Amino acid sequence: MSEELIETKELQEKLGEAIEHAEKHPSLRWIMYLSFSTAVMAVIAAVASLEAGSLSNEAILFKNEAVLNQAKASDNWGLFSSQRNQKGNLFRSSSNV
């Protein structure tokens, strides 16, 4: 964790130096805006990617729940059908006696 803090401090120092350099040289100011806009777009892309991954996981979860519900419905239909057949067989066997 301390390595991340060191890297952040170094980046802040370099950014501060770049800002000072851009203030001294107004013709290079557009480079600062360009780099800032690139960084903002990268952050937006990263957030969008995370959101897409979250939505994908949610879709997979819903699909799995649907398959589970379909299996439960199939099991219930099989149970109902077997009970109906047993009642029919019982009725036929009792009427033959």
Q: Keywords, please?
A:
97 residues, mainly alpha, 94% helix
Helix content, binned percent: over 70%
> What is the helix tally?
2
Distance between the termini: 84 Å
* Record field, number of beta strands: 0
Total domains:
1
Rg on CA atoms, Å: 34 Å
Mean pLDDT: 82
User: What is the makeup of the main sheet?
Assistant: none
- Strand percentage lies at under 5%
Structural class: mainly alpha
In terms of per-residue confidence, which ranges show pLDDT below 50 for 5 or more consecutive residues?
none
- Order of helix and strand elements from N to C terminus: HH
Form type: rod-shaped
Describe this structure in a few short sentences.
The chain has helices at residues 2-24, 29-96.
Mind explaining what this structure looks like?
By secondary structure, the protein is an all-alpha fold. The protein has one domain (2-96). 94% of the residues lie in helices and 0% in strands. The protein is rod-shaped. It starts with a helix and ends with a helix.
Topology:
Elements: H1 2-24, H2 29-96
